[in-house]
DNA sequence: GTTAGGG
DNA sequence: CCCTAAC
């Protein structure tokens, strides 16, 4: 069956060169203090890096909780890196596939009834989006999920949260033999080790992204976009990355509506024959995005670039060095991809449409000359890094790296997905006055210092802070108070829940040891000091959450107390090990003690969980290996489970007998005793 | 709050 | 994992 084969592709994993060796090794040896310079780094890696940073210098004893202070804040920069560009890239082979296959990665809400067969789950969950499809393919046709760095367990974990599929021009793509051929070619390419970055990796990044947003894509896209804004543009945007597309559309600015951008410069195209028709540009992208996604992009764009909000203007950008850089990059034979070109051409910058693309590699802020600019001066802003609000995590030694990753990811997700404030930093100093105009502040035309402008994302902890934000002042993003749904409580979303209830992964906001689902603690106070001068901060989250939720998000009803099922977190082997060991020692009737002994610091494992797990372990141990699912538990452990279970069952039986005897004893002898007394 | 089991 | 009766 085709499906099965694809399953293999997806889950047995072809090594997907998600990033060049140079970048990879650079990351490996990256010190915590070193900025992570890797624009290919997906969220997953990113967050893992955060974890590494956070854990540095911590007491690693399992029980001690980790405290985090300001100095633990991590600045993560995902910028374009030179090595990236230097790396030889052959993308030529990929072009036809890119062009021919789906144009959009279909991200859907989590709908995975079958824990143990994620592929089927994919299929099931994507049934609507994909129609008849047993089509679970990358949009580049490579099929399946890139599994680099993802263990089986993690893979499954993500699989549960993400639904992916390939959609061709907004419609489900039917996987046919031609696709199969393409896919094979891509796989071959991947296996050859010469695949360009991005090949088959779409899913990978999509997965990362998706996970970050906890499988709430359409809500999160907005947030994501904001976050993504903080990543410097990559030189080679994932050709099929929806987010990239959204972002790129945004980057195209808001001119497309009022100006029939004459920008379709028919520049000579020597790149490759696969290039799409030149003039499609923006329009094509729009089409590609499919209506509702486009809507998302547009709305978001409106939010960010609306003239009402702010005049982003100036072009104080150093064009010379800019073009120099750009030129130097042309040395790379296959640098430009189709997708890339699209943007170039859609840019209405008539004179140098090619170079106009180069704003992708600009630094934190840059403006650019455009024909329409004089009429409506804008500042084009690019954020290259953001600061992850402090957080601390607590995780037992027995936890796996994978669980660490998840933990950190969830912690960060909680923050990113939650209330975030945007801080503006200029010349290294936080801009504290919202009332000034950009020009007054220095964010303008004349300021071409690359590092002049910066942004930070910070926990938008309380209503107080929010209300402290001057509403009337210009801001990059402003809340749309007229939004129809504004009557809904903005903050609490499902995504948020189930994350903040992971006490194991918490931020510094004081919401730590909540182990109950639904008890999402909203960030409170604290962090205020650090943000004392944060008048410039602007609440972003609720806005995007609300305005961009094309797909209706199930909101918590009136009392916001609709309990949500906790996220499923399969026990790792290490956890099983710990559990077995504890039960061997304590028996099967003292789950609280087991919890305290082996999972004390793991807040999301309740003693009930442990009890349940033991139950399933016993069951697992009794069935044949073929019937077992999930991450295989070593037989040795299962044997111990059976042994321990037998032993303690017997003990329990004995105890009960004793009790019975005692009771009988009492019945018979108590009268006597009384008599004696 | 814990245990023990069914769902 | 959830739900809950029964401690």
Automatic annotation (TrEMBL):
Could you name the Gene Ontology cellular component terms for this entry?
A: nucleus
Major subcellular location class: nucleus
Per UniProt, subcellular location reads as:
Nucleus
- Molecular function terms in GO for this entry? telomeric DNA binding
Q: Which UniProt keywords apply?
A: DNA-binding, Nucleus
Q: What InterPro entries is this protein classified in?
A: Homeodomain-like_sf, Myb_dom, SANT/Myb, TPR1-6-like_ubiquitin, TRP_plant, Ubiquitin-like_domsf
Q: Region Disordered: which residues?
A: 253-277, 459-491, 506-530, 651-677
Asked if the Swiss-Prot or TrEMBL record annotates the protein with the keyword Nucleus, the reply is yes
Its source organism is Punica granatum (Pomegranate)
Question: Iron-sulfur: is it a keyword of this entry?
Answer: no
Compositional bias ranges of the Basic residues kind: 656-669
Q: Where is the HTH myb-type domain?
A: 563-622
Its protein name is Telomere repeat-binding protein 1
Question: Could you tell me where the Polar residues compositional bias lies?
Answer: 261-273, 459-484, 506-527
Which residues are in the Myb-like domain?
563-618
């Amino acid at each position: 069956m085709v499906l099965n084969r694809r399953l293999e592709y997806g889950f047995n994993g072809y090594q997907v060169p998600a990033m060049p060796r140079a970048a990879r090794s650079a990351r490996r040896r990256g010190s915590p203090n070193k900025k992570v310079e890797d624009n290919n780094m997906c969220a997953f890696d990113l967050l893992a890096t955060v974890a590494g940073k956070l854990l540095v210098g911590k007491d690693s004893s399992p029980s001690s909780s980790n405290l985090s202070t300001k100095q633990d804040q991590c600045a993560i920069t995902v910028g374009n890196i030179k090595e990236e560009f230097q790396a030889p890239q052959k993308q030529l082979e990929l072009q036809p596939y890119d062009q021919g296959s789906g144009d959009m990665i279909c991200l859907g809400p989590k709908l995975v009834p079958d824990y143990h067969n994620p592929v089927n789950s994919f299929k099931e969950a994507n049934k609507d989006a994909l129609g008849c499809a047993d089509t679970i393919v990358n949009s580049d046709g490579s099929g399946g999920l890139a599994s680099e760095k993802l263990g089986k367990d993690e893979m499954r974990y993500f699989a549960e949260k993400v639904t992916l599929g390939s959609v061709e021009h907004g419609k489900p793509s039917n996987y046919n033999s031609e696709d199969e051929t393409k896919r094979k070619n891509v796989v071959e390419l991947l296996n050859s080790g010469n695949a360009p970055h991005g090949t088959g990796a779409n899913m990978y990044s999509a997965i990362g992204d998706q996970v970050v947003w906890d499988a709430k894509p359409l809500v999160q896209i907005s947030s994501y976009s904001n976050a993504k804004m903080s990543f410097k543009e990559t030189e080679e945007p994932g050709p099929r990355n929806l987010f990239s597309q959204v972002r790129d559309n945004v980057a195209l600015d808001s001119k497309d509506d009022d100006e029939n951008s004459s920008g379709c410069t028919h520049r000579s195209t020597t790149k490759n024959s696969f290039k799409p028709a030149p003039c499609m540009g923006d329009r094509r992208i729009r089409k590609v995005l499919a209506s509702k996604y486009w809507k998302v992009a547009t709305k978001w764009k409106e939010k960010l670039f609306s003239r009402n909000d702010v005049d982003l203007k100036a072009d104080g950008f150093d064009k010379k060095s800019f073009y120099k850089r750009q030129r130097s990059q042309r040395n790379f034979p296959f640098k430009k991809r189709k997708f890339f070109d699209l943007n170039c051409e859609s840019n209405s910058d008539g004179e140098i449409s090619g170079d106009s693309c180069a704003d992708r590699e600009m630094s934190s802020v840059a403006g650019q000359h455009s024909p329409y600019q004089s009429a409506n001066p804008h500042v084009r802003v690019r954020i290259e890094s953001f600061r992850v609000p402090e957080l601390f995590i607590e995780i037992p030694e027995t936890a796996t790296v994978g669980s660490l990753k998840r933990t950190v990811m969830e912690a960060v997700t909680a923050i990113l997905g939650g209330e975030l404030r945007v801080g503006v930093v200029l010349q290294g100093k936080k801009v504290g006055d919202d009332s000034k105009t950009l020009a007054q502040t220095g964010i303008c035309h004349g300021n071409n210092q690359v590092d002049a402008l910066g942004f930070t994302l910070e926990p938008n902890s309380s209503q107080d802070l929010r209300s402290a934000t001057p509403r009337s002042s210009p801001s990059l993003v402003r809340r749309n108070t007229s939004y129809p749904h504004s009557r809904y409580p903005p903050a609490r979303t499902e995504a948020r829940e189930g994350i903040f209830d992971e006490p194991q992964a918490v931020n510094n906001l004081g919401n730590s040891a909540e182990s109950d689902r639904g008890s999402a603690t909203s960030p409170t106070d604290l962090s205020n000091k650090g943000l004392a001068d944060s008048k410039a901060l602007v609440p972003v989250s609720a806005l995007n959450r609300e305005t961009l939720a094309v797909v209706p998000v199930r909101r918590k009803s009136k009392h916001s107390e609709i309990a949500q099922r906790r996220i499923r977190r399969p026990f790792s082997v290490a956890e099983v090990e710990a559990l077995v060991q504890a039960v061997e020692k304590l028996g099967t009737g003292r789950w609280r003690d087991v919890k305290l002994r082996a999972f004390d610091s793991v807040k999301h494992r309740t003693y009930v969980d442990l009890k349940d797990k033991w139950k399933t372990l016993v069951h697992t141990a009794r069935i044949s290996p073929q019937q077992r699912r999930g991450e295989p538990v070593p037989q040795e452990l299962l044997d111990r489970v059976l042994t321990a279970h037998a032993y303690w069952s017997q003990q329990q039986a004995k105890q009960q007998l004793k009790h019975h005897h005692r009771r009988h004893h009492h019945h018979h002898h108590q009268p006597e005793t009384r008599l004696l007394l």
